[in-house]
Amino acid sequence: MEPKSITSAQNPVIKSLLAIRRHPGREAFLAEGPHLVEAALSGGARLEAVVVSGEFLARLEDTFFNALKQAARGFYRVPSRLFERIAEAKTPQGILAQCRYEAPELRRLAFRGPALIAVSAGIREPGNLGTLVRTADAAGADACIILPGSANIFSPKAVRATAGSLFHLPVIEARLEEAIDYLKEKKIALAGADAHADRPVYGWDLRAPVAIAFGEEAHGLPPELKARADVLLGIPIRGGAESLNVAASAAVFLFEAARQRMQLTQALPRR
Question: What is the pLDDT of residue 161?
Fold first, then answer.
């Protein structure tokens, strides 16, 4: 299937893509740039449409081209000026895909070992939310649960910030009560990252099944979640900084959990 040529902004495909850019969601959102589109392909995402500029198509490698032809339900070529109207990035890279996100239900999550789940409890900045998903994926977490009050993970900025991890890590939107009931049922502890907590994260056993909740920087965790958490943990601040960015805090917490779970697989080399 060769890409169909579209030259008019009045084409229904273009109008649909512009509408999705304004109001993205799980059913339809945009992955922009070759890295994100390749991640969508490797993650088995459903590609409803792929749009490329003529310049990008001219330098597209055969392997990537064939993969796009097989995976996309619609494959379109547009002039650069029209691609720039669709793209959200300031410097468009010449390819974007309309994706549909297929995530498992909360109660059908699968775990590779003791559960490790990241929870967004109202992270409103899309870049921070996307980075949370990326960090959770990098630390080997099993899923990311997004509670009401959080940013739209399918917005262009959040999708870019995931750096492709959105297509490799289950991201599940759930209500607070639904999430807490699930965690209790599965015997997964709920830990809250709290800048004012007395207990340091380094001194807490994170090897058991745990979900770690992160709140908005300015306001912290919602009171109703703090009241239901099994433990509140903080990061000791040694210098003069008041606190850490929520994305940085998530990296500390999640990689501390990963460190604690890591098993020594090789004997240390002798000196």
Answer: 97
